[in-house]
Amino acid sequence: MQIFLIVFAVITRLVPHAWNFTAVGSVGLFAGANLSLRKALIVPLVPLLISDMMIGFYSWQSMLGVYLGFLMAPVIGHYLIKGREKVITVAGGVGLNTLAFFILSNLGVFATGSYGFTLEGFVSCYVMALPFVSAAFVGDVVFATALFGGKALFLHMQKRQAENAQAA
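RE: above sequence
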């Protein structure tokens, strides 16, 4: 499963897409909910490294913020969703994940000094990032729905198949 999630995230990061509309956060959430935390933490990091090697690296401050932001996904998946895979917990995890990524990734952008190291620059940095957070949220919702919904559908079909085999 870990390899599938990594490959899926790499593909969604490399194909043309709206800014921040990728599966990286969602695969991190899903990995956190379904793997050991140690294995889950690798899931968002490997696609980021692979795709950054292909797309290009950027300032270390921004990269640190982005990588830390995506590392929150498996932590949230592990502690909020694991063992409680209901629509409400997954939805809460998606919202919290998007918020954590927004805060940490833009803290990295602010740390570059691009907006100046003032309160006005800090606020401006986050205000300018608002259009990107909406695309990240939609991407997290779409990909989390596909991953968690796909798992639920698979388990439901597996259960029905077992019940039908028992009845026959």
